[in-house]
Amino acid sequence: MSLKLTSTKTNIYEILKSNYIILYFQVTLQTTGYNIGVRKTVDQKKLDAIYKPKNLTIATTVFAIGKYIRFLHDFLETAEKHFMVDFKVHYHIFTDKSHEVPSVNLAAGRKIFVHQVPKLNRWQDISASRMQMIQTIIEEQLHREADYIYCQDVDAKFHFRWGAESLDRLVGQIHPWYYDLSRDQFTYERRPESTAYIPPGEGDFYYIGAMFGGTVDEVYKLVKRCHENLEADKANGIEAVWQEESHLNWYLLYNKPSKILSPEYLWDDKRGKTNVQKVVRLSHVLKNYAEVRENA
Ligand SMILES: CC(=O)N[C@H]1[C@@H](OP(=O)(O)OP(=O)(O)OC[C@H]2O[C@@H](n3ccc(=O)[nH]c3=O)[C@H](O)[C@@H]2O)O[C@H](CO)[C@H](O)[C@@H]1O
Ligand SMILES: [Mn+2]
What we know:
Layout: H1 12-17, H2 23-32, H3 44-51, E1 57-64, H4 72-82, E2 88-95, E3 111-116, H5 123-128, H6 130-145, E4 148-152, E5 156-158, E6 170-173, E7 211-215, H7 216-235, H8 243-254, E8 259-261, E9 267-268, E10 282-284, H9 289-292
Parallel strand pairs: 1-2, 1-4, 2-3, 6-8, 9-10
Antiparallel strand pairs: 4-7, 5-10, 6-7
Bound molecules: uridine-diphosphate-N-acetylgalactosamine and manganese (II) ion (MN).
Membrane topology: Single-pass type II membrane protein
Main location: membrane
Cofactor: Mn(2+)
């Protein structure tokens, strides 16, 4: 499906109202109660019936480093209730505390893989280093073992069904704090010295770094390029304003996602309830930054 998101529209609602909506938004609009631009519905049960016989393996990467190990239990337990239920899911957990990975009852066909990694000193580096580690795990293992991959933050809980409707070649996730802001308010990297630079007036959406996905091949291209750009910036003594999230936004501007998930696929408990949606499928939990982060 071709995307034409490079319009000069400045507000997501305008984009949604225009003809540039991708199929999923229409579904999302239906299922959430956004009543803009709904043209077509997709029956989620029918979609499941299409995807299930394909016997897919969905990998998800989750980092639980330092104190973030505390979020892992709820993430996994709620994922078992709501995330790609009845699919083969491989959780790839990256942690410096392998022995503290909680035991959670997994449904048949679902597995946990634990990868021991060192703890870096700055939260910015921990977050950004995910790009490189995902690249490596795809090279070493996932290219053989998985069809799709999601890369998710651990400090979140599932609350509602998240299914095959989210699968696509390259999937971006609209940031829950930016869906109703105009493009000039997006916190893209604005210094031309950074490889994540996005000039004023450009940009489709502000994507969150805490969730992206797609086929293993597409995600590989994404993480490899973001890792290269992070390294190039480091060599030039510059760190993008929101680290890997800035690089992800750059990548998805110039490599359009084939599906964009609405904020119901990653909400933020801090935003509480709003009247724009009926359903929250996954949501960031409240956390005390000063307490959980290494160098806050
Ligand atoms: C809702 C919100 O405002 N999100 C922003 C915030 O994300 P967050 O505040 O959600 O970032 P975060 O602290 O959750 O870090 C991202 C992820 O890195 C991992 N991790 C991080 C630190 C650590 O000590 N151990 C560890 O394992 C863990 O998987 C975590 O979920 O900051 C990011 C910048 O990086 C982005 O700007 C996000 O948009
Ligand atoms: Mn987070």
